[in-house]
Write a structure and sequence with these properties.
The two termini are 27 Å apart. The model has no long low-confidence stretch (mean pLDDT 83). α1 runs antiparallel to α2. The chain is built from four helices and no strands. Helices cover 69% and strands 0% of the residues. It has a single domain, classed as DksA, coiled-coil domain (Four Helix Bundle (Hemerythrin (Met), subunit A)). 12% of the residues are buried. The protein is an all-alpha fold.
Amino acid sequence: MAEHFSDEFLAQQREKLEHERLSLGGQLREIDAELVRLGQSQSDEGAGVGNHMADEGNDAQEQDNDFGIRANIEAVLTEVDHALTKFDLGTYGICEDTHVPIAEARLEALPYARYTVAAQEKREKSGAFRAIPSIR
């Protein structure tokens, strides 16, 4: 790994990934708190009489949206953790398919990229597409 990237670049990338991990963890906590609030709201409203169906529908839709966002954040967090593990293994920035270095520009844009652009395109064409999650 060290022969492909400068120590400065690697330090910057690791810092980005660690910052991203903290940020994503905070976002998960916020969504979890919102889901608890929505669940409590639905529970409280269910106890009363005369709930407006539109309000209940809005809460249910908001809860569904939050679950979808939460799933995407978890997927990105998994990718971030994987990239940090690759740092520990000495394989950060190396394509998992071709075993060649991933372009620095790609890693700067997507620090948890697993594949070169060419390898990603090949996966997409062959049906082995693995969507790269993003919350940006």
